[in-house]
Structure to design on (474 residues):
């Protein structure tokens, strides 16, 4: 590799940090690679999930499992060396500091790496010479390779309330978005991790008297059980590879292997479908069965990297069936909340500070927000906070760089979320076909990678992409 290669990385969060980290630690890395990374100063090295915010917003993965490797200090070592107590669940802000320091140190060590505190406004692709033209403000640059690592899309707005007075469409960072919320009649739309963030911030940091959390199901993530080591016996790459026929693996065969694994690990399969519809009862059950729940969760966490890789081998009909029937059961156990968070939620609900309302049918704005439920109940809310999470359909996020890439037909939406990519995470363009010098990592590959947005999986997949990148340069 002698010719200079200009590389753009779009986004500065976990995916970007991981790509950069693996790239500079590859033996093929050299001065002929010029790397520009685009993101705002606030997000560079952090991304939205780990931006500066309230210390009460906790990571839901134990500290021991949150490291980026390649000779850098582990997250625990970094905490200790910076006089932070290495508690089991730290604030997300602290992990953002860890990532930011890693990215900054890598950039300072190499003159050919540049952290550009600006956004990419437009990108065009010339299929004749295989190069990208990137516009950022008044700057125009040409790149030979592009890594799209923008992270999550814009927030959902399921009740079309974005322009309504008193509606907080995107509350993050909570220190800014919720700092001036009036204490009277606060409602939150959603019951997932974002909703829990908002609940904790309002009740702990703001000390508001009460909060209502509205959602269709009322289901919250499960409670993280007792950590346990899992050595897989049945759900392995080798056994799944042996089931591949004509580049497909049937859902039935995957289910059979998973059931065998659960039985081998001593996990009661009925725990997958343990929800009763009563959110508080479900939380209490998990809190009082931490060992059993932990075994189930850590089997799921252990098989997830394998299933994420074989997910692309499901037929369309099998993928539809899986997402409809089985994904909700897996998802609620895949990213469980810390025990201390669950105990707080139960305490607040019992004290009349937190009301979890399911069966939300509609939300309308008149003088106030009127929330109607399937039970014909109505709630009158003065301030409504959107905590429904980000979009998965890129067509609903037609602003910024995603809108530009869609407009130029460089990317296309996947039926199952994110954008179309091949098995090596190259972009598949509806106009020019596979673009082998454009890689994607993060939420934009949700249709190809199953539940792959954890730090561990993003870091692992970044390694694969970087290896593929260097192989293509040879």
């Amino acid at each position: 590799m002698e010719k200079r290669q200009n590389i753009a990385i779009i986004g500065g969060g976990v995916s970007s940090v991981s790509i950069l980290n693996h790239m500079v630690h590859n033996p093929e890395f050299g001065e002929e690679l010029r790397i520009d990374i685009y993101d705002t100063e606030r997000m560079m090295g952090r991304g939205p999930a780990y931006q500066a915010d309230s210390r009460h917003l906790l990571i839901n993965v134990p500290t021991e499992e949150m490291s980026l490797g390649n000779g850098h200090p582990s997250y625990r070592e970094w905490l200790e060396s910076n006089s932070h107590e290495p508690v089991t669940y730290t604030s997300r802000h602290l992990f953002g500091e860890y990532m930011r320091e890693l990215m900054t140190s890598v950039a300072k060590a190499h003159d050919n790496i540049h952290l550009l505190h600006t956004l990419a406004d437009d990108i065009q692709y010339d299929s004749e010479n295989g190069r990208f033209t990137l516009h950022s403000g008044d700057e125009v640059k040409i790149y030979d390779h592009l890594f799209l690592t923008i992270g999550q899309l814009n927030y959902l707005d399921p009740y079309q309330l974005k322009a309504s007075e008193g509606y907080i469409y995107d509350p993050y960072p909570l220190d800014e978005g919720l700092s001036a919320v009036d204490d009277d009649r606060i409602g939150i739309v959603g019951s997932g991790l974002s909703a829990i963030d908002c609940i904790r911030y309002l009740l702990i940091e703001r000390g508001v008297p009460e909060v209502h959390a509205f959602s269709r199901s009322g289901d919250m993530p499960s409670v993280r059980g007792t950590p346990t080591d899992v050595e897989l016996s049945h759900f392995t790459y080798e056994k799944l590879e042996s089931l591949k026929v004509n580049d497909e693996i049937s859902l039935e065969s995957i289910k059979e292997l998973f059931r065998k694994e659960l039985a081998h690990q001593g996990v009661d399969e009925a725990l997958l479908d343990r929800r009763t519809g009563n959110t508080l009862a479900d939380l209490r059950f998990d809190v009082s069965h931490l060992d059993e729940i932990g075994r189930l969760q850590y089997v799921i966490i252990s098989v997830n990297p394998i299933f994420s890789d074989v997910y692309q081998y499901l037929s369309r009909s099998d993928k539809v069936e899986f997402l409809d029937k089985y994904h909700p059961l897996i998802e609620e156990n895949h990213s469980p909340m810390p025990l201390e968070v669950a105990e707080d939620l139960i305490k607040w609900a019992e004290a009349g500070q937190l009301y979890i309302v399911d069966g939300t049918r509609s939300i309308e704005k008149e003088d106030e927000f009127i929330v109607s439920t399937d039970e014909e109940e109505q709630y009158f809310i003065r301030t409504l906070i959107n905590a429904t999470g980000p979009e998965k359909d890129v067509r609903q996020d037609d602003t910024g760089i995603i809108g530009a890439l869609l407009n130029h037909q460089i990317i296309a939406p996947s039926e199952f979320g994110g954008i179309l990519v091949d098995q090596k995470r190259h972009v598949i363009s509806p106009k020019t076909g596979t673009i082998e010098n454009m890689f994607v990592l993060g939420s934009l590959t949700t249709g190809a990678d199953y539940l792959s947005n954890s730090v561990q999986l993003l870091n692992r997949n970044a390694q694969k992409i970087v290896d593929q990148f260097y192989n293509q340069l040879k």
Observations:
- The first helix runs from residue 14 to 24.
